[in-house]
Amino acid sequence: MIRVILVVLCLVVSPVRAAEFERGMAAMGRGDFATAMAEWASLAEAGHPRAQNGLGILFGNGFGVARDYSRALAWFRRAAVQGLPDAQNNMGRHYRFGLGIGTDTIEAARWIKRAALAGYVPAQGTMGALYARGEGVPRDLLRAYFWWSLAAAEGDRASMIAREDAAGLMTARQIRIGNLLAEGWRREPVTTGP
Questions:
Q1: In a designed cystine with 49, which of 82, 146, 188, 193 is the match (CB 3.0 to 4.6 A)?
Q2: Is 3 domain-assigned?
Q3: Does residue 89 sit in the same domain as residue 149?
Q4: Structural domain span for residue 69
Q5: DSSP labels, the chain
Q6: Domain tally for the chain?
Q7: pTM of the prediction?
Q8: Are 180 and 131 within one domain?
Q9: Low-confidence ranges of the chain (pLDDT < 70)
């Protein structure tokens, strides 16, 4: 009986929580950061990863609050460990640029790669850049080409340009391998990758 009540409560509460989150998104879009904060605060405390990421964005950019990279990082981390790719990418960005924490390119690459493996296009483009520069990962133009190919296939213009620039530095064999890897990924994504 108690299980039935809990299931019913979850079904009733979930649409309300979704509506709160969407009201926060709409407020954010209007530049009404105070309303976004009000809508997301209780959701974030209750463990809603998108609301947690939203609070991280508010604090990280100083939208409606004093800019506080440490608080932003704390909210991004809570959402990232729950598997939200946007938050994982945000964690990587904070480690990469030392926002609220010391710069750590290896940790940055680890978080960004998690988001990229989940199919988050901005992270895929960033992984291409990290491999091209050897930033937090070994320098590897083939892997850079692979990641840029994935992001380019989703319409990311910067990755399209970077991929073509990389191709100019690669052999025909490397390009063929990179294309095969990217095509294989698009057919059947995996949980690990180059």
A1: 82
A2: no
A3: no
A4: 13-104
A5: -HHHHHHHHHHHHHHHHHHHHHHHHHHHHHT-HHHHHHHHHHHHHTT-HHHHHHHHHHHHHTSSS---HHHHHHHHHHHHTTT-HHHHHHHHHHHHHTSSS---HHHHHHHHHHHHHTT-HHHHHHHHHHHHHTSSS---HHHHHHHHHHHHHTT-HHHHHHHHHHHTTS-HHHHHHHHHHHHHHHHS--S---
A6: 2
A7: 0.87
A8: yes
A9: 1-16, 188-194
